[in-house]
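=== RUN LOG ===
request id: a7f3
mode: sequence -> structure
chains: 1
length: 108
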Amino acid sequence: RALHLYFPLGTFKTATTDRGKEFSCHERIREALGLPMYFADPYSSWQRGSNENANGLLREFFPKGTDFGKVSRSELAQALAWINGRPRKCLNWKTAYEVFSEEVLHLI
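=== RESULT ===
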């Protein structure tokens, strides 16, 4: 699905992924999203620091090894709401939701 159906054009400028097999179809993903895609170097998690931090926050709710096939959409949505609703020092004590919403509103 095109991102512009959910977010204003310009919300996302690029996508950076690791080299996992889930991105072997990166050409189709790039086409579907309409974004340039970049790949982090192997064993270079610092190149995707925000993603690694988000994974750590998610692990507070779902420990490593969790079978996400057994996690309901509502459980995942609740965990994401708590994570995105948590004030963060690096965001001047705003939540990720607040900062993202403010940025998207500037695009409208």
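=== NOTES ===
The longest helix spans residues 73-84.
Strands lie at 15-17, 37-39, 87-88, 94-95.
=== END ===
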